[in-house]
Amino acid sequence: MTKSNHVSPPKSANPKMGLTARIFIGMIAGIVIGALLNRLFDDSGDFSFSVLGIQVSTYALLVDGIFNVIGSIFIASLKMLVVPLVFVSLVCGTSSLSDPSKLGRLGGKSILLYIGTTAIAISLAVGFALLVAPGEGLNLETNATYVAKEAPSLGQVIINMMPTNPINAMAQGNMLQIIVFAVLFGIAMTMTGATGKRLTAVFDDLSVVIMKLVTILMNLAPYGVFVLMAKLFSTVDFDTIKSLIKYFALVMFVLGVHAFVSYPIILKLLSGLNPLILLRKMRDAALFAFSTSSSSATLPITMETATKKLGVKSSVASFTVPLGSTINMDGTAIMQGVATVFIAQVYAVDLSLSDYMMVILTATLASVGTAGVPGVGLIMLAMVLQQVNLPVEGIALIIGVDRLLDMTRTAVNVTGDCMVACIVGKSENELDTHTYNDLEAGLKEEEVHLEDINKKSN
Questions:
Q1: What separation in angstroms does the CA of 384 have from each of 55, 372, 378, 448?
Q2: What is the rounded CA–CA span in Å between residue 104 and residue 100?
Q3: What is the full DSSP assignment across 382-416?
Q4: Residue 3 burial class via C-beta count within 10 angstroms: exposed 0-12, middle 13-18, buried 19 and up
Q5: Closest C-alpha among 148, 150, 228, 146 to residue 400
Q6: Of the candidates 181, 102, 116, 143, which has an alpha carbon nearest to the alpha carbon of residue 430?
Q7: In terms of Cα–Cα distance, which of 222, 358, 335, 288 is closest to 79?
Q8: For site-directed labelling of 202, which of 32, 122, 299, 395 has its Cα 20 to 30 A away?
């Protein structure tokens, strides 16, 4: 017998690049292109050309035209999935619970954790701001004014949680009302026997299809992230950032401390899980959140991360993650803490220890009391400033850099959403630790193979 001379082909030295790497490359490329456009089309002028006798600005064509259109479509495609994903997944999760009283435990644990992390976030912000003093010695003047919207009372927020028209709530994207209706609908399905079981099978199939749609959009993310970053950095006023560099750097630093120190410690103490795995698996969702600046728009990716990569069962993730996207505002609380100290120092107003304690309490409670209200971050800040008799007009000083900070604090918020989902899931024995510890979990599901469509059609 002779040995076969067949030699297996060598493995490819250039495996397909992962989704995280492609998103990161798209983000960096967008930032570079945007910054170059910002410098190229400054006060020195613009390049224009004629099309059919019409003068077209190169800057307007790129930024207000191509980048704006593609970026807006990308954001709209993400938001398109939020309502059906939350409703379907929450109905599936609720109907799968054998013990309806478990919902009370899930809600209680989730809300307490979200409020607790918000209190820690703003305490860190106020503490570091007093230590660094970002507003001392600054003489910032602005002609801009800011008129604060009136925040609803806590009682009114609770009343508004009950939908009078569920279809209208879905059309408007009112997340708290959608959550309430989905929970009630799921409980009703559980109580209707065979009819409910047949309907549960339909919702389970819908959930699979929606998650596949999320996967398709995730694979388009590198292009969406590129145009969003290019558009943003082509319009950023770097002079404003220079004048507020101390405030800007401090907020970024505290956000980093909360994400990479506070969250890991809380996760380890309350669940025993390895926090480094959480941070590693949050990369895709964090990059999405950074580029979109919207917890709601990132919600489909956050849900996919919690269930497919972190191993949180749908019965828990479908409740804690949408709730977190509405009431978890750790990043916003950090901005408010630093901004309050900053504005007080700019206006030379001395705040007492009791004032700072009131800032922490007000911001923590306001994160729940203003849930689901448009422009909630600035409304909360206005409430905090009014509580300690600081001029609300001071908000106008920091609006110029808030867009960039909003990107980072949204990434922190979605990380907090998944951390709470993991803690609650572990405490309820609804977390698959094997999936959580598997660094490759969920990666295969991210791949989209269009050739499979041809095979199935044949």
A1: 49, 18, 10, 47
A2: 8
A3: HHHHHHTT--GGGHHHHHHHHHHHHHHHHHHHHHH
A4: exposed
A5: 146
A6: 102
A7: 288
A8: 299
Helix axes 102-132 and 353-369, enclosed angle (nearest 10): 140
Beta bridge partners of 48: 57
3-state helix, strand, coil split of the chain in percent (to 5) is 75, 0, 25
Report the pLDDT value the prediction gives residue 447, as an integer from 0 to 100: 62
- Identify whether the C-beta of residue 272 lies closer than 8 Å to the C-beta of residue 255: no
Token pair recorded at residue 424: 């609650």
- Name the DSSP letter for residue 63: I
User: How many angstroms separate the CA atoms of 305 and 214, rounded?
Assistant: 11
Cβ–Cβ < 8 Å for 179, 86: yes
Q: Which two tokens stand for residue 302?
A: 């956050």
**Residues forming a β-bridge with 101:** none
Token pair listed for 40: 């190229």
Q: What's the rounded Cα separation, in Å, for the pair 155 and 157?
A: 5
Q: Summarize pLDDT for 255-278 with one digit per residue, the tens.
A: 999 999 999 999 999 999 999 999
Q: Residues near 1 by Cβ (< 8 Å), separated by ≥ 6?
A: none
Q: Which of 278, 297, 251, 262 is nearest to 71 (CA)?
A: 297
- Count the residues in the chain: 458
Q: Which residues face 56 on adjacent strands?
A: 49
List pLDDT tens digits, range 45-75: 455 545 445 555 677 778 778 888 998 898 8
DSSP 8-state assignment for residue 44: T
Cα–Cα distances in Å, from 382 out to 62, 167, 270, 376?
36, 32, 34, 10
Neighbours of 64 (CB within 10 A): 14
Residue 45: phi and psi, rounded to 5, are 125, -175
Domains contained in the chain, CATH given: 55-445 (1.10.3860.10)
Residue 435 has pLDDT above 90, yes or no: yes
Q: Could you tell me whether strands 54-57 and 48-51 are parallel, antiparallel, or unpaired per DSSP bridges?
A: antiparallel
What does pTM read for this prediction?
A: 0.81
The token duo for 389 is 């008799």
pLDDT band at 141 (very low <50, low <70, confident <90, very high): low
7 pLDDT more than 50: no
At position 284, the amino acid (one-letter code) is: D
Helix (H, G, I), strand (E, B) or coil at 57: strand
Distances (CA, A) of 79 to 82, 180, 291, 308, 315: 5, 20, 14, 20, 22
Work out the angle between the directed axes of helices 221-235 and 19-40 (0-180°, nearest 10): 20
